[in-house]
Amino acid sequence: MREYLVLKNFFIRHKWPYIIGAISLIMLDFVQAYIPRLMGNITDGLKNRTMPYDQLIKYVFTVLAMAIIIFVLRYFWRMGFMGTARWLEYEMRRDLFSHLLILSPDYYNHHKTGDLMAHATNDIQAVRMSIARGMTNLMDTIVLFTTSLIIVVKTINLKLALVGLIPGPFMFIIVVIFGRKIRERFRRVQEAFANMTDKAEENIMGIRVVKSYVQEKGEIKKFDKANMQNFEANMAMVRLSSIFGSSMQILSAISTVIVIIYGGTLVINKTITLGDFVAFNSYIGMLLGPLTSLGWVVNIFQRGSASMKRINTIMRTKPEIVDSPDVVDVKELKGDIKIQNLTFKYAEDLEPALKDINIEIKMGKTLAVVGRTGCGKSTLANLLLHLYKVPEGTIFIDGIDINKIPLKTLRENIGYVPQDTFLFSSTIKENIAFSPDDIPLEKIQYAAKLAGIHDEIMGFKDGYDTVLGERGVTLSGGQKQRTAIARAVLKNPNILILDDCLSAVDAQTEEQILRNLKEFMKNRTSIIISHRISAVKDADEIIVLDEGKIVQRGTHEELLATEGFYKELYKMQQLEENINTEE
């Protein structure tokens, strides 16, 4: 139960709905507990023919009045507990989503999307059920059992009550034995569901790869395996719950048999009246019902506890990248970048991704970075965005250590276009704007023109209101890249980072885009990462990375004058261009 302590503040803030709900539930139980006694009195009166007609009518109206009271009280306790539980579900899902957004990118390298989706759906729903149903049934069990027991002892027969409760201790033992097992089985169910969800999502997202490699049968087989694991986990849970529930029902039936035999004997011996016996049969249900319900309460609390633990594990995960205590109060960055003696590892047991990097980029200048795949180009861009921990005293912007620059300020002043372009399932206009602010269409169109995508957007039936498929699937690779460039341009940043974001367009289109961006980049610090010489040749400085180290640096002309990777890449691309021209 300690897993629920994190919800303390929620219960304090919503104490009044719970108080009203609890009072309504207690009053409801008192009313319900009186009904069997009332029915017993009616039975005795009718059996003995001692009840006048007006008394019978009075009882009838009393029962109707109690039904109305039960209706009203049930509404208030359901709104108090069930309604507030919906608020809990809303807040938990909002807080979980907000927390996921502040976690560092590295967290998502080690956690599957399907598992995180299961947390946001099934786990939160299980917690809501444990709070709504669990709390009400627990309170109902305690109040109804206590009230019924007092009425039975005082108005019917103490011995009959004790005899009827003989199975009670055995019920309690079963609850204790099964409680922990249910919690463990439910944890396995949630994990199996998360794995199945992850498999389904991967295949839906990668449907084109699956089809192009004709792997439908293979992927169906893999999904079927995950689906079967989910089925088996649920069946194991069903088997345990069935044994648990059946055991409680058997003990309840034994109690009923005992009551019929012993209670019937008491009626025959005239120790109690027939009305008392009728009332007691209802009360024994109220006495054993809560004990049977207690098993269900334990079941649902154990499920909720397992889910709450999984959610707490995420919520207690601290983001690796946060503002430092000695952060500088700066709102705007001009764009002077200095990198000195930077060596970076993704993990202690891995080789450095960058080694002894020294770069200086003055405001308004352009740096180009080229190199083989995996040489550290994108790592450099990620560190400038402070997406990973940056060693102290290695990267400075406007003379301020990047670790002392507020993350919000840093990222607001950088326009970044990654090589892995991501577009949302919304309109082209919303994808380019990507802001809660109402940005004029004219500004969006201007950014699209600079990115060389405006004419193609206008060629669509709905223009800028064209709704894209998931991850922008309705656009070509080049169109997606240019839409992402327009998004960065619209941001109007002082620092622009283009990370190999023109790889999906042809050389002619690339040249046009760079020509459009030249004026835009004039007074901004720009970093262009590319495999194409045509994209970097006009940069103020070009560096060549190899295995995380700078092996060449200079202007386009200087690098062509010396032997090395840059010159070899240039010759190879020139040869390709000549061949394409001849064709």
Shape: elongated
Give me the CATH fold name of the largest domain. ABC transporter transmembrane region fold
What's the architecture of the largest domain in CATH terms? Up-down Bundle
In terms of DSSP E residues, the strand content is 5-15%
Q: Biggest sheet, open or closed, and with what strands and sense?
A: 6 strands, mixed
Query: What is the total number of structural domains?
Result: 3
At a glance:
By secondary structure, the chain is of the alpha/beta class.
Verbal overview:
The chain has helices at residues 8-13, 15-48, 53-102, 105-108, 113-155, 158-164, 168-205, 207-212, 216-268, 274-315, 377-384, 407-412, 428-433, 441-450, 454-458, 477-490, 507-520, 533-536, 556-560, 565-582, and strands spanning 337-344, 354-361, 366-371, 395-397, 400-401, 414-417, 495-499, 525-529, 541-546, 549-554. It is α/β, with parallel strands linked by helices and 583 residues long. It has three domains: 9-315, ABC transporter transmembrane region fold (Up-down Bundle), CATH 1.20.1560.10; 330-413 and 493-583, 3-Layer(aba) Sandwich (Rossmann fold); 421-492, P-loop containing nucleotide triphosphate hydrolases (Rossmann fold), CATH 3.40.50. Strands 6-7-8-3-9-10 form a six-stranded mixed β-sheet, sandwiched between helices. Strands 2-1-4-5 form a four-stranded antiparallel β-sheet, with helices on one face. The longest helix is centred in the middle third of the chain and has 53 residues, at 216-268. The chain is elongated and about 120 Å long. It is found in: Cell membrane. Its main location: membrane. One of its GO terms (cellular component) is plasma membrane.
